[in-house]
Model the fold of this input.
Amino acid sequence: MSNDRTYNVLFLCTGNSARSVLGEAIVNHLGEGRFRGFSAGSQPKGQVHPYTLDLLAGLRLPIEGLFSKSWDLYAVAGAPQMDFIFTVCDSAAGEACPVWPGQPMTAHWGIPDPAAVEGSEVERRAAFRQAYAVLENRIRLFLSLPLASLDRMTLQNRLRAIGQQTPSAAAA
Done:
């Protein structure tokens, strides 16, 4: 893989309302033009969770253009070709995915669903911050990989290893 091009990164989840959208926003923020983030879901909720948008806005990350969409959008002719695809929820990892053009590198980076957390508003918002912290750590590790010097098998192993980090270790 060459370092003189922009890599497209797709984050997949079932509902495309929280974790995958956070991944998209973080890659677009930290990728510095070398990486372009996208997100989608197998069964999109139709709207981004309000806590996702509040968190990103509070961190001064752009939220314009973020919306809940189907992964079918990226599996059709003319869609951006993905270089990397990360599933961020366990249910999406087990689903039959579309056939992605170009044989992108894939890995599962499972993170507990902050939208499923019950409790007070403080507890629920804390779950979104925790998901963000885990994703940010994993994405920073991913962005620091020497893509141009890694063979495909080594890169695949590194991507999987990043996803194996426990959420508590990643946030530490």
